[in-house]
Amino acid sequence: MPKPIDEIAYANYFKKKKLTQEGFLLLADLAFEYLGSKPDTIMVLALEGLSLSRRIGFTKGEAVSLNRVGNAFNILGNYPKAMESFLQALRLNEKINNLDGIQRNFTNIGLIYNNQGDHRVALDYLLKSKALAEKINNKIGLSVALGEIGRAYMNLKKNDSAQLYTQHAYDVAYQTHYSRIIGL
After folding, report:
1. What's the half-sphere exposure (Cβ side, CA atoms, 13 Å) at 56?
2. Is 22's pLDDT higher than 70?
3. Cβ atoms of 104 and 68 closer than 8 Å
4. Which band of pLDDT confidence, cut at 50, 70 and 90, is reported for residue 3?
5. In which element (H, E) is residue 156 found?
6. How confident is the model at residue 176, as a pLDDT?
7. Rounded to an integer, what distance in angstroms lies between the CA atom of residue 118 and that of residue 103?
8. pLDDT per residue over 72-100, tens digit each?
9. To 10 degrees, the CA torsion angle through 36, 130, 101, 65?
10. In whole angstroms, what is the distance from residue 180 CA to residue 63 CA?
11. DSSP 76
């Protein structure tokens, strides 16, 4: 079994090197791998990525980092800070017309509203996310949005709609082998 990556050493490595956009995206991918398990590690890597992306003027990297910061705050239950990070990322993604990033931000904002119990507002964002994911053919993003729509409907006691969207989320995830939803 391979030795686990020392994520702090990895971040420090990038700090010492001249970071390219591709290198930054690897750092962001590493932060994403800790989603759901190590919010402190996500935060360290994301804040490092935010600093580095600002230093090299990489707006997309800045938006991705803010999204990861929001993910960490969400896991920690700090919904106001998560929302603030997601909204900042959304503004940057809109500025550079990054449709994948906009779609992801709509989902994350909807997720925060779901977590806070405001399921109707969550649905507004999640339905925008769904429509954009379909438009840009982002199957994984579609699957995640559909799952959150299902959760919103479940919390609104609209069980038929909840079941329909949850099943659709599973079907799309299964087609794309997206293990975070189908549990592979």
Report:
1. 20
2. no
3. no
4. very low
5. none
6. 82
7. 20
8. 899 889 999 999 999 999 999 999 999 99
9. -20
10. 22
11. T
Q: Are 102 and 94 in contact (CB under 8 A)?
A: yes
The band of 1, judged by pLDDT with boundaries at 50, 70 and 90, is very low
C-alpha distances (whole Å) from 92 to each of 148, 170, 182 are: 23, 30, 31
| Angstrom distance (rounded) from CA 118 to CA 108 | 14
Report d(CA 171, CA 180) in Å as an integer: 13
Q: Which candidate, 103, 6, 10, 5, places its Cα nearest to that of 49?
A: 10
- In the 8-state DSSP scheme, what is residue 5? P
In the structure encoding, which two tokens stand for residue 98, read together? Answer: 């990054």
The predicted model gives 141-159 an average pLDDT of: 95
Cβ contact 89:119 at 8 Å = no
* Neighbour count for residue 55 (Cβ, 10 Å): 11
Residue type, 161: S
Residue 184: its pLDDT value, please?
A: 37
pTM of the model: 0.80
Comparing C-alpha atoms, which of 77, 45, 76, 41 is closest to residue 61? 45
Cα end-to-end span (Å), the chain: 19
CA-CA distance, 54 to 24, in Å (whole number)?
Answer: 11
